[in-house]
Amino acid sequence: MNLADTVFIFVSAVLVMLMTPGLALFYGGMVHQKNVLSTTIHSYSAMFLVSIQWILIGYSFAFGPDVKGLIGNLDWAFLNNVGFAVNEDYSATIPHGLFMMFQLMFAILTPALISGAFAERMRFSAFVLFTLLWTTFVYDPIAHWVWGVGGWIRELGALDFAGGNVVHISSGVSGLILALYLGKRKHAGETSPHHLPFTILGAGLLWYGWFGFNVGSALTFNEIALNAFITTNTAAAAAAIGWVICEWFATKKPTVLGAVTGAICGLVAITPACGFVTPMASIVIGLIGGAICFFAISFLKHKLGYDDALDAFGCHGIGGTWGGIATGLFATTKVNEAGANGLFYGDASLLLKQLIAIGATYLFAGFVTFAIIKIIRLFMKVRVEEKEETTGLDLSLHGEKAYHS
Q1: Distances in whole angstroms, Cα of residue 312 to Cα of each of 3, 26, 171, 289
Q2: Is the pLDDT of residue 190 over 80?
Q3: Domain ranges of the chain
Q4: Average of per-residue pLDDT across 390-398
Q5: How far apart are CA 221 and CA 293, in angstroms?
Q6: What average pLDDT does the segment 29-44 reach?
Q7: Does the structure show a pLDDT above 90 at 139?
Q8: Reported pTM
Q9: Which CATH architecture does the domain made up of 3-398 adopt?
Q10: Side-chain half-sphere exposure of 196, counting CA atoms within 13 A
């Protein structure tokens, strides 16, 4: 065990935890003022619910001893044999329980990300049940595939440093399925952010917390962690620039909301690649990521007519997909000997592996999410009534208001 590594991962875990309240602000500022509390509670509820699910069964499903490359068994349920001693399968320098807590923060954030897709129209009771089922049957298996010892994507050799598949693609695709299933909000085209300073502050907290997310995934502060620190910040900055350039050309007015959204898209795009690519590559990944996400959110969504309220798919699904592909293009063993060379470094096989991993995540997350919501629909209403939507979910579902004049 190493004290420096232990402190490093403890701080990283706390930084990742900060991302969920940051997300609550980021999402909360973009909805109607009559729905800010109902949107915020989605993020905080993920903290409450997944924190319990994870120590009961979730961590064991995600990282426990392998079952045919698909999921962990229940040997570590209720944190059995997960304590202060190290587990060398994951890290020889930090306590096993600390690794578990670090991974918990990822598991909390992911279902909270999904909530942006169905903001302002999903019943809270349905959200609670969905979060528990989705974390158990979508997040935990995908986390095992990618990061668990024996997971099939890990064995395939696809690379995902900090959660491109596990966090972003899974949440983005699942959000799209829910947005399509629930249908559009009433007057969806007329909505506008009620408190942009909230959103801007939330974006700043997300950017700050993302250093724990990406840099901490090295599990020790070495040259790979430092590289992840540099590439993470660089890609975020480049994506903000990429978004603003596109927006400036398209609308003649660069917006603050667009700039901070672009930065988040860059953070998403660099997540799978940050420990495998050079800082120069991260500029390209960020610039292209910002541009791709701008067109997905500003044009593709309207062209196809789905109501992804806060752009969970446009940001996380599209950004995560580009990030996974970019890893297959730009990864190099000069940065990380434990990684692989991508297409631009002479090996096309990594790109193929990345595409297989991305495709499997799309199919699995999409199909299981649809099955979960259909099952929930058998027992309870999923969407609020039109009157409740008109009144606002804060009052109609929670009996409170964010603002009193």
Answers
A1: 38, 12, 7, 15
A2: no
A3: 3-398
A4: 96
A5: 31
A6: 97
A7: yes
A8: 0.97
A9: Orthogonal Bundle (1.10)
A10: 8
